[in-house]
Design goal:
single chain, alpha/beta, Rossmann fold
């Protein structure tokens, strides 16, 4: 996780504060309404054993652990946060309700000791949340706050770090993270902690302010800030969008559907309309300003140095020079115009290969980031839960499905026109271009992130991940971890290398839909040849490839003067 300058963190905090909506608190000493507090004991008390702990706390000590649920909910509501407080009874297992609430909550706040169990229930809840997130191929952001009245917060931090193999963020031993999981530990107001840890003692008012700071530590970034701001705008304007696309739109929608040559196309038209409304809202609110030049200048203060690797040397830029590159572009900068000889041509030809590294820290792989960004701009996203099996259409990428999960086979790109991918009453041939895997620095057209799944078993009692389960054992896995490999593919436009494969539709859908087997999707031809679904190009990219192929088909071959042709 990258440390950010105060200026950029302030920008990210404001974005996070606007995004956060829901908080769930689990505390066994939560109080709802007016409750009678036990009177402090008077008179002589039996002293505790050396090194031990009194079984019964005094009224003031017990008060530290108590949580005024009504005050908390009102306070959070005043900041635009919907807060739910769960108070598990002694002997009650809160895991099932916590897991369901976790699917909607932006932040989880847990008391450490629940019914004097020394953190056992809190550990189980954290384990449950982590294992639940791991069951998705792309785990969600998860912010967990430990808010406790216990004095030994350093011991709590060590126990959580060791239990879940988390990393300490910066110099703060009370902030732990791994990927998109972030756990921060704070003590309730009045808790006695060593003087050097006093900043970790927060009132509930201070904690409500701290949530956006902790969330921003996960999400602080130029692109991620734009994403969070976009989601906030759409969420705030949901009812406006619904008012424009309400039930009164049903009659014209039905008329539109009935008039189409292929009525089922109307379902995609609805998606296009909704996406267009979303796009309009984001444009009107100028969401892109969250990554404008001012935000970029604040982001650039994160790094101490910027080095561009060139074919002849490593060039170091100062802060003002790299800001200029962002403001007017590298080829318009004074640095580029000052290059002599053929250095300008070398930068133009090679800068795209190394420029990302200039803005990376040492922990990130620039080539991997370039691959992922290229995929974001060219491939459709099917992350999260797979609600529907993919269909075979223009832009679908398949591979010959071999027996081993680690082999990829040959790759094929479906170039069937979209209108010919529907209304399939029995069977139909589909047209494919071959894709060739390339290595090294050769030119390529498509980047794929090919998942090699590792299946793991989860111990339902301890929520610990058990050793590797061999691939292919039926009904043995609970968690799937990805070991990703990036593959570069080149499109083969040669007509004589293209192929047709025949598929049949099933049921009344009149499309070719994949079958899900364990963690992958497969298509079967008429002769039961097996193809594995890999990905799908975005519509515009697939259409461009189709246009390029048709242009090559229509090229004119003629005899002419070679002398004239070369001129």
């Amino acid at each position: 996780m990258t440390d950010v300058s105060p200026d950029f963190m302030d920008l990210s905090k404001k974005v996070a504060e606007k995004f956060l909506h829901t908080v769930v608190i689990v505390d066994d000493q939560a109080e709802f309404g007016e409750e009678v507090l036990p009177k402090p004991k008077t008179g002589l008390q039996k002293p505790p054993k050396t090194g031990g702990r009194e079984e019964e706390q005094s009224g003031s000590e017990a008060g530290i652990h108590r949580l005024d649920a009504k005050k908390v909910m009102y306070l959070f509501a005043s900041k635009g946060l919907i807060c739910s407080v769960l108070k598990p009874n002694e002997g009650e297992n809160p895991l099932s309700i916590v897991e369901r609430a976790a699917k909607r909550a932006d932040v989880f706040i847990l008391d450490w000791k629940i019914h004097n169990d020394d953190g056992a229930i809190a550990i189980k809840i954290i384990s449950s949340l982590i294992s639940s997130d791991l069951k998705n191929n792309n785990p969600r952001l998860r912010l967990i706050i430990i808010y406790t009245g216990e004095n030994g917060i350093i011991q709590i931090s060590e126990k959580i770090k060791d239990k879940f193999s988390l990393k300490i963020c910066g110099d703060d031993c009370f902030t732990l993270s791994e990927g998109h999981l972030h756990i921060a530990i704070f003590a309730k107001y009045g808790t006695k902690v060593p003087q050097q840890y006093e900043k970790r003692v927060l009132s509930i008012e201070d904690l409500s302010e701290q949530l956006s700071v902790e969330f921003a530590k996960i999400t602080s970034g130029l692109v991620s800030n734009v994403v969070l701001e976009s989601m906030s705008v759409l969420r705030d304007n949901t009812h406006i969008i619904l008012s424009k696309l309400g039930p009164e739109m049903d009659p014209p929608y039905l008329a539109h559907r009935a008039l189409l040559p292929n009525p089922d196309d109307a379902t995609n038209h609805v998606i296009d309309i909704i996406a267009s409304e979303f796009h309009s809202f984001l444009e009107n609110h100028e969401i892109g300003e969250k990554a404008d030049i001012n935000a970029i200048n604040a982001w650039l203060k994160i790094k101490n140095s910027f080095i561009l690797k060139t074919p002849w040397d490593d060039i170091e830029f100062d802060y003002s020079e790299v800001c200029e590159l962002q403001r007017i572009g590298i080829e318009q900068s004074d640095w580029f115009k000052g290059l002599t000889g053929n250095k300008q041509q070398k930068i133009t030809a090679n800068a795209h290969k190394t420029l990302t590294q200039t803005f990376c820290n040492d922990k990130l792989s620039p080539i991997e980031l370039d691959f992922k960004f290229a995929m974001l701009t060219s491939l459709k996203n099917r992350q999260g839960e797979d609600l529907r099996n993919p269909i075979l259409t223009l832009g679908t990428i398949l591979s010959n499905a071999l027996n081993s999960s680690k082999d990829y086979g040959n790759f094929w790109l479906c170039l069937q026109p979209r209108c010919d991918c529907t209304r399939i009453e029995e069977k139909r041939k589909f047209f494919f271009l071959p894709l060739k895997e390339v290595d090294g620095d050769k030119s390529f057209d498509i980047i794929l992130e090919f998942d090699d799944y590792t299946e793991l078993k989860l111990d339902c009692e301890t929520y610990e991940i058990l050793p590797y389960i061999e691939y292919g054992n039926e009904n043995t896995f609970d968690i799937i971890l990805n070991d990703c490999k990036f593959i570069k593919l080149k499109i083969n436009y040669n007509t004589y290398d293209t192929s047709h494969f025949e598929f049949s539709s099933k049921g009344s859908e009149q499309v070719i839909r994949a079958e899900k087997e364990r963690n992958h999707f497969f298509f079967y031809t008429i002769d039961r040849t097996k193809f594995r679904w890999i990905s799908e190009l975005k519509n515009e990219h697939a259409q461009r490839i189709a246009n390029d192929f048709s242009a090559k088909l229509s090229r004119v071959g003629l005899d002419e003067s070679e002398w004239l042709r070369r001129y």
